[in-house]
Every structure is written in structure tokens, then in C-alpha cells.
Structure prediction request, 394 residues.
Amino acid sequence: MAVTILRRRRYASIASIVLPVSCAGSRANRSQLYEMAGLVTEMTMSARGMQKEGDWQAPERSNSCMHIPWNHTIACRCLIAFIGLIVTPLVSGAQVSQSSQSGPLDAYTLEVNVNMVMLSATVVDRHGALVSGLNKGDFQVYEDGILQQIKDFSRDDIPVTAGILVDNSGSMSPKRGDVITAALAFARASNPQDQMFVVNFNDRVSFGLPSDVPFTDQPDQLQRALSGIRAIGQTSLYDGIAAALDHLKLGNRDRKVLILISDGGDDASKHTLAQVLGMATQSTAIIYAIGIFDEQDGDQKPSVLRRLAKETGGEAFFPESSRDITPICEEIALDIRNQYTLTYVPTIASQDGRYRAVEVRASAPGRGRLSVRTRTGYSVPVNAAESASQGARP
Prediction:
């Protein structure tokens, strides 16, 4: 905030209160500021009423500050107190408004801040059925084998930012109808407040939604996004995943999910598998992969899909027919809506860029043996100053 004091003739009066645009808020707020500035002016003049007009002297200026005569301290104190009361709520409100309209600063950094880790966890029993109703005390989180203290816990059906990645290479042409049906079934079974987008990939990568529509929750828009490209050419799987991970940072939902549907490996990407895995471990995105493989297809790489899913806390599915994709997508939507959210502050706070292994366990009386599916670890963002300091050590 900057306060401008303008001198008219021989009087020092408050002519305006100048605020940055981000703090000034709406036109109505600015009008209120101008009215308040007028009141402050009157207060200043009243406090100066004891002094004759001819006695006024301009404030003395130096290179570093402005010196105001002692006999105007009453006006100055009124001014400072009044500005503090006026501006603090305005600035605070503007910051809240700006924060609520913007998404995460970086989808590849850990959620909340660099010292807070957020995990989404799915719990199943020995029959593979989802387990609900667990409490914070039923979970234990380990990082690099060290027990961590869970700071926050939630078991609510919170909305997510979800990307649907669809392989549109030539071999997918006869399966496109089943894929579109399954993707729409996933949308219908998901939280109505989810933010969704579509990434189509073959030789090239493209976004299904218009450039001015980053996300949607409308089935008709999703259908057009899925149907607007012809299945032809090769497969740039890694480029598609990289583009989707990058697009996730535009979303403002705390949890991020990618649904990947493909029938082959990769033969056209500029990115490598190692690069994509690195991006995935630095994000909080959960990847669910659906592989639709033909026996005669020599390019199939189910191990890649399994690895992407396992390291991010998702799951890989390999249906025998494309007709089985719809129930799988509905199962994935149910899985997402029944996850637990755990956050903790790591006992090792160093931002050294290293990979940290994570394990989550769950147990509760009468629940039998429970299995927890979550990401296997994450890469810590590098703190440049800390890295330089460590590099300078002998």
C-alpha cells in the first residue's frame, strides 16, 4: 500500500489514498475509499484548526523520509490509525478473493506447501471391497521407514480435477464407440463438482475442449471433446501424459486424477518414460490405466501402465474386450469418491530434490486384514539456496 500526501497551496491535506489494483477491489470499494479519504482530510484540517494559516510550513524532506512538524502529530496519528482500520480489511479481502479465483501455483509441487504432503488413500479388505468408516487413528504413515504424525484427515467425497487421456491411434478405430461410452459413464458416476478435461493423442497431442474452456462438468461437452478427432496414425503416449500432468495445474481442486485408455505402447513421443515418471512423482496426480490389448499387437507394454498406476497410487486394468471398459470406469469413479485424504509434515524438512518412499498402513478392530493403495513416494522440490549450500560444503 502507498499513501500519497498532496499539498494544496499552503495546506497539507490528504487528497487521495492510492492502492494497487489488486487491493482496491471493485468500483464500489474505490468509491468508499475516496469518501473515507475526504473524511480523513476533514480530520486533518480540524486538528490543524488551532494553528493559524500563516504559521504553516512545508514538511522538511530528506533522501530517506519526510519530517512532519510536531504540532501536526494529532493529525498524523488520526491519519495512521484511520488508514489501518480502512485498508487492512480491504487488503485481506482482496487476497482471499484472489486466492479463491486462482488455481494451484504449481501442479508439480506438493500440495499446501513444500513442507506438507497430501496423500489420497484407498482401503480395501481381503476380498477387494472398499472399506469406509475408518478414523484418523486407524492409519499409520511412514516416510523412508520413519513413522509420521498425521496432521489432517478427511474421508469426505471431495471433488477432483480429472483428465481423460484417450489413445486415438489407428488401431483404436474399432474401439472408439466403447471408449466414448465408458468415459461418459465415468463422468456420470463422478462427483458433480469435478473438473474434467480430455486429452486425445495419436501422432500428436490435442485437447478435446475449446481453448477457452479448460474444464467442464457437462456430458455433452465431454462427448464432443472425445468425438472430435479421427483415430489414425501412431501413438505418442508419453507426450499425452506429460500434457495432461501440465494441464492439471490449471485446476483448483486439491486432488488430481488421470484416466488413461490405450491399446499399445509408444512409438511417436518426444518425452521418454523416465521423464514422464519423474513428472508423475513430483505431482499429486493419481493415474488409473486401462489397457486394451490385441493378442496380435506386438507394441503392447502392460508393464508401463502398471508402473504408472502403482507409483501414483492408482490401478491398472486389462479388460478382455473394449465392452468391459464401462464398468471399469464406473469402478474407478467409485474408488475416487471413497478415498481417504491424509496430510503430514515430514520429519525430514530438507528440500534436497531426493525421492522419499511412502507407505500407509491401516488397521481397525473387527475389520480383518486391510490393504492401502496410495502413491509409493514422491520427489521433494529442490530448494536452490539449500542445494547451493550443500554443494559448497567440503
Remarks:
- The CA atoms of residues 6 and 12 lie 7 Å apart.
- Residues 1-76, 81-113 have pLDDT under 50 and may be disordered.
- Residues 117-155+341-392 form one domain.
